[in-house]
Amino acid sequence: MRNSVGAHLSVATAGVLLVVSVALVVGLASYELRRGLASKRTAATMVTDLFTASVSPGVVFGDRDAITAEVANLCRTEAVLGASVLLADEHGDAVLCGSAAQDLASAHAPGVEVTDERMIVTRRILGRDSQPVGLARVAFSLAPEKHAQAETRRTLALGGFLVMVLTGAMLTVLTRRRVVGPLLRLVSVARRIELGDLGARADGRGRDELGTLARAFNSMGDAIAQRDWALREELQVAADLQVSILPRHGSFAGIEVSAIMQPATEVGGDYYDIIPTKDGCWIGIGDVSGHGLGAGVIMLMLQASIAALVRSQPRISPVDVVCTVNGVLFENIRVRMGRRDHATLSVVRYDSDGTLRFAGAHEDILVFRAATGAVESVETPGTWVGAIRDVRHAMTESRLNLSPGDVVVFYTDGITEAMRGTEQFGLERLIDVVSLAARGPIAELPSAVTDAVRAWTSVLADDVSLVALRCTAVDGLANEKSEETRN
Q1: Could you give the C-alpha distances from 480 to 13, 160, 372, in angstroms and in order?
Q2: pLDDT tens string 353-378
Q3: 140-184 pLDDT, tens per residue?
Q4: Beta strands of 228-382 (E only): which ranges?
Q5: How many angstroms separate the most distant Cα atoms in the chain?
Q6: Among the CATH numbers 3.40.1090, 3.40.50, 3.30.450, 4.10.320, which is that of 5-146?
């Protein structure tokens, strides 16, 4: 809590109280000293006047013994440091006593002289004709006043410190109760909203500024909840649209196909499609960089572009499809939208003679061979789409030959890169799942893989998609051996 509002207020309060206490101590101590000096001045003047009156006869009649006796008698007083009588005769003689005698030996004008340690009062001694015949000087110690001032300072400092501590403690408690406490409750509500509890609200019953802040905070929470609901509705519509255009199962010329997609968010960036033809089908699979609504929009661009091409030109080559789609994506993503996204993409043409022709760079294709029970991993050479304007120089067409009963699996990296701690699900685990599931119904293979992935990781960090294809016949002839194997 070193940087909390309460800590800052406590420090500021302590600083203000310290400055005020010091000022009060210094001011009161100075006041007490001035008052003490004024009292001392009055008393010293009175004593000096009495002393002057008592020595006047001795000065007038020249009785030095009487003068000396009066001076000695005065010097016995504890507060008197010294006394002197300066005679205005032809000798300029003086009668002195006390520790300050030497400082009193010289003539001075009548008045009061104050130094750090003493107060000296000088009075004229008048003769019978009211003419000055001498000076009486008395030095008084200021030690009692200085000591009293020091005691006053200590008392005031201790009292000021106690007042500062008590006041600071009360202000700290009051601040934490009336300011810091409500602010911390607002922070708690904000964190609950951050974690998804959009119904969390603060206590807005107060009539002060914090109550106004709490009510404004609650209004903001209502607005966030309303907008979140509207956004979720819109995202759900987008998700429904995205899922609705994706095929799940189908039987075409000599093949059975099954597919699945599970987005990490409401709208995914994975792409797949299955487009039948008279003598086979087209299969597309890809993965847009990132996920979410932006990736979902690019995914729909992929789907629409490829579907339009292969439906209008069923015999077009996979290389031409990928190169044409790359140009469309580059124009839309890089030029018009100004984004830096790209996509991995493989376009596959299956012919009823069991030939699989493909182009584009995506994850390896897994092929389960029914004759041996082995799973092959086939590389997909090429490059990403949407990153540069022309990719034809990097594209090549590859081929695979399938036999009845063989299973081909296309997938996205959300499967192999699913994490448990620091370990990925990986290609080897995927191959193990495919090796077992490929022997059963093709419709169950995608779910078997996604179930294994969800058992591996607690949270899907990326979209998961998979398309499984089983060759059931070559050139339209059913393969009875494959049926027996599956049964």
Answers
A1: 92, 104, 17
A2: 999 999 999 999 999 999 999 999 99
A3: 888 887 777 778 778 777 877 777 777 777 777 777 777 777 878
A4: 249-252, 255-262, 270-277, 280-288, 343-351, 355-359, 365-368, 375-378
A5: 163
A6: 3.30.450
